Amino acid sequence: DLAALVQRLVSDHYAPVSAELERLERDLFVPTPLMQAETAPASEPGELSEALDESPPGLEFSNKHLLTGVIIGHLPLAQVDGRLLPLGAVLEGHTLIAIERDFVVFENATDSERITLELKPRSTGAGESR
User: Fold this and answer.
1) Mean pLDDT along residues 48-57
2) Mean per-residue pLDDT for 79-106?
């Protein structure tokens, strides 16, 4: 009975809650295995390309990857190429060092070059106007 439970919890006497806790399917403050997998650093083997492009490396990285969402808060996350990345995640040798409202910043480990990916606005559907 809910009223009896509330009365036990607000009384001056200790009310054991272990029986109530056992009914929970999981601790809501512990990340699920799926969340842990999605927020794991995206480290990939660093392969150096011997071919030199005429465009700057930062331009190639920013053209190759798409930032589609950010979550700001205690555990900031960035959604890049459909993957959730926490601060410190490594993507193609670039470390995610900042997550802001409209952009994220990656830093190249070899030359400390900083690359900004801007949040792309959602496109409107046919017939819609902004």
Assistant:
1) 50
2) 92
